[in-house]
Specification:
This protein is an alpha+beta fold. The protein is built from 13 helices and 11 strands. Strands 2, 3, 4, 5, 8 and 9 form a 6-stranded mixed beta sheet that branches. A 5-stranded antiparallel beta sheet has the order 1-11-10-6-7. Strand 4 and strand 5 form a beta hairpin. The N and C termini lie far apart (about 85 Å).
């Protein structure tokens, strides 16, 4: 990079086109702050004007009147432009900060000794735009304005004569006709007094101004880098969000989601839902015909949350469905799946599974439970009751595990309801669990309903119970009604 390019880069307002787009959003808030500062400055100017009218300050009234009116006009112009354009034009920052600079210069000119630090206000305000180049440019203009204002105060302002030796008789020095005329009347050496004032008053202020300028530049640079970094994080988050949304679509596509799933079959009605606590989850359900006479039903809950659980969930689902279609009892199927998962389970995750196979002709269900929640069954004319089946070990916990299986029979009109612990372990703001008893009671509100109504009823009651509490676990439910 050449020297010219380095200088251009140093004083550039925006570092790149990308930076422009990012900071256009930031500049609106910065312009609002500038408008607020201008309003406060106008109030200070009016107060100074009033104090001068009552002789608190000794600036000639004609001069002060003229400067105050000019200052108020200079403040009004950018405020009107801000209102017209709603603070969203890029060039507004130049108008507003430069207008403030002019007002500060006028106040410093007439009240030099009283408002020593006012000239740093435009520099500090410019740093809020988070553009190092803009702050440097305003600092240079402010430094020039500081020099002009310091010279102007000798003509019509209140100056600091602390560095002029007071007369022995204690006479008060009041400047009415300018610094030169006043000092000549006192018989003082004008050039010596001006030199002492510049050395002991202006130079220290200049050094302080430079220090504050450097701080303002660093603030602008730091703010710039911070916003850029936040923008990068935001973009990465947006990419991750898009990927998670896609993963959610893929995951939802992995489970049956078209109902009724078997419109040509009138022997049973089945419905299931899955509500993930995050974008993707570890719960899953599945149901499919093994052959014309047997329906497989699966519901499972993977340990953990988020993407790892979702990946583990899909691998487990595929293994279960593929092995079930080959044939065999639920216990044999779970034993096979467990050994396959344990053979390469570096993440050391596990999954609880309830697997049932319905004989569509007879209503007999052969099931196996690998550490999952108990199913609930409602016989026609009765109420839902939790079936305390015999649990076996979770899938993925240990190789060569044996899985128990059991049987029960569904008669015409009976309902089977299986679920994950997201239902029973849902909690409200008081950390109270929804629980198995409350779930069973809600199931019995409509024991003769169809599966979709049953699930909708339970989900509504869970949502009502949870209220505003944050949901941490996935909620998955499957319900089957046997028609015979």
């Amino acid at each position: 990079m050449s020297k010219k390019e380095k200088v251009t880069q140093f004083f550039r307002i925006y570092e790149s086109e990308e930076t422009k787009k990012i900071f256009e959003r930031n500049e609106y808030q910065a312009n609002r702050l500038s408008a607020f500062v201008l309003i406060v400055s106008a109030i200070v100017l009016v107060i100074s004007w009033a104090l001068n009218l009552f002789d608190v300050f000794t600036v000639p009234k004609v001069t002060m009147n003229l400067l105050a009116i000019q200052g108020l006009i200079e403040i009004a112009v950018p405020l009107v432009l801000f209102k017209i354009f709603n603070g969203k034009k890029r060039w507004l920052k130049y108008v507003m900060v430069l207008a403030l600079l002019l007002v500060c210069m006028r106040l410093f000119s007439v009240l030099n000794h009283n408002v020593i630090l006012i000239m740093v206000l435009p520099v500090l305000l410019s740093s809020r735009y988070f553009s190092k180049g803009f702050t440097i440019n305003i600092s240079i203009v402010s430094l020039i304005a500081l020099a002009i204002a310091s010279a102007s105060t000798a003509v019509y302002g209140i100056i600091d004569l602390n560095y002029y030796p007071a007369p022995d008789d204690g006479t008060m020095i009041l400047i009415k006709n300018g610094l030169h005329a006043s000092l000549t009347a006192l018989g003082a050496d004008t050039s010596a007094v001006i030199g002492r004032i510049m050395l002991h008053a202006f130079l220290p202020r200049l050094l302080v101004f430079m220090v504050i300028t450097l701080i303002a530049v660093r603030i602008a640079e730091h703010g710039h880098n911070m916003v850029i970094e936040q923008e990068k994080v935001s973009r990465k988050s947006a990419v991750v969000k898009a990927e998670l949304d896609t993963a959610n679509l893929i995951q939802n596509g992995m489970v049956p989601n078209i109902f009724p799933p078997f419109p040509e079959r009138d022997e049973f009605d089945i419905y299931a839902t899955m509500y993930t606590a995050k974008e993707v989850g570890g719960d899953f359900y599945d149901f499919f015909l093994i052959d014309e006479d047997h329906l497989a039903m699966v519901i499972a809950d993977v340990s953990g949350k988020g993407v790892p659980a979702a990946l583990f969930m899909m691998a487990t689902k595929i293994l279960i469905s593929d092995r079930t279609l080959v044939g065999g009892s639920p216990s044999e199927i779970l034993e096979f799946v467990n050994n396959r998962i344990c053979g390469n389970n570096q993440a050391e995750m596990f999954v609880t599974v309830w697997l049932g196979i319905l004989d569509i002709k007879t209503g007999k269900v052969v099931a196996s439970n690998a550490g999952h929640e108990y199913p609930a069954i409602c016989h026609k004319g009765g109420e839902f009751e939790v079936l305390k089946d015999k649990h076996s070990f979770v899938i993925g916990g240990m190789e060569n595990m044996k899985y128990r299986q059991y049987e029960f029979t569904l008669d015409k009109g009976d309902l089977l309801f299986v679920y994950t612990d997201g239902v029973t372990e849902a909690h409200n703001e008081s950390e109270e669990l929804f629980g198995e008893k409350r779930m069973t009671a809600d199931l019995n509100n409509a024991p003769d309903a169809m599966p979709e109504e049953v699930i909708s009823c339970v989900k509504a009651e869970v949502d009502k119970f949870v209220g505003k509490a944050e949901r941490f676990d996935d909620i998955t439910m499957l319900c089957l009604k046997y028609m015979g």
